[in-house]
Amino acid sequence: MKKLSIAVLALLAVSSQSVFAEEPLRIVTEGTFPPYSMTRADGSLTGFDVDIARALCREMKMKCEIKANDFEGMIPGLIAKKFDVAVASMAITEERKKAVAFSDKYQGGYSTLIGKVGQKLDGTPVSMKGKTIGIQQGTIQANYARAKYQPAGVRLNTYSTVENAFLDVVSGRIDALMIDVGGAYELKKSPKGKLVEMFGPKMNDVKYFGTGSGIAVRKEDKVLLGKINAALKTILANGTYKKINDQYFDYNQYD
């Protein structure tokens, strides 16, 4: 009887491991930040981050499930095990590294301001005194604006999505939006893109903007992180990354 119990327990253990192994990797992205992640009318996700995530999953030979979530809730969601991986153009900063682990860089870039055409502002904190800049909550741009622009007398409006902030720029409710350059280029391509222009200094201070964007996982998931880095190295080398890049950008997003 004892031998039978042990055998049954062993079988159950193997079965449990098999079921766990078949569970999809839960990937989170934003879904409201074109061209990085967008939600189609049918609810499906597309965009640069989404395609990169799928390419990595194919390379790792893992079943993946990609869902959208607000950007601010991604790191708390990872820690709470609501998600396993965040592929969301998340800058690798020292502050974030205290909470999660990052893959090698998979994006470069910098941040800029966009505002209505003809504002004649140079975008420096001094020139923006008394003006209002839109920032997306939980982003590096928000941290930078609070550190550099707010003390200079610039008003900041916080938004849950870039899309909402852009609508306020176009309508004149705010003077500018601080955004990643890739997002700025995408907004310029939109139906109302001719109404706005990029301006101001190139914002890439490592203290605030980090060393590029990486893929975030929980600190304890070292094996998974190793697989992601290996897959990333492969898609960079075999042309997959470039193929995805060229669908969305007129420049190399990795630089």
From TrEMBL:
Residues 24-252 form the Solute-binding protein family 3/N-terminal domain. The keyword Signal applies. This is Transporter substrate-binding domain-containing protein. SMART domains: PBPb. SUPFAM superfamilies: Periplasmic binding protein-like II. InterPro entries: Solute-binding_3/MltF_N. Keywords: Signal. Residues 1-21 form the signal peptide. It comes from the Bacteria. It comes from Vogesella indigofera (Pseudomonas indigofera). Pfam families: SBP_bac_3.
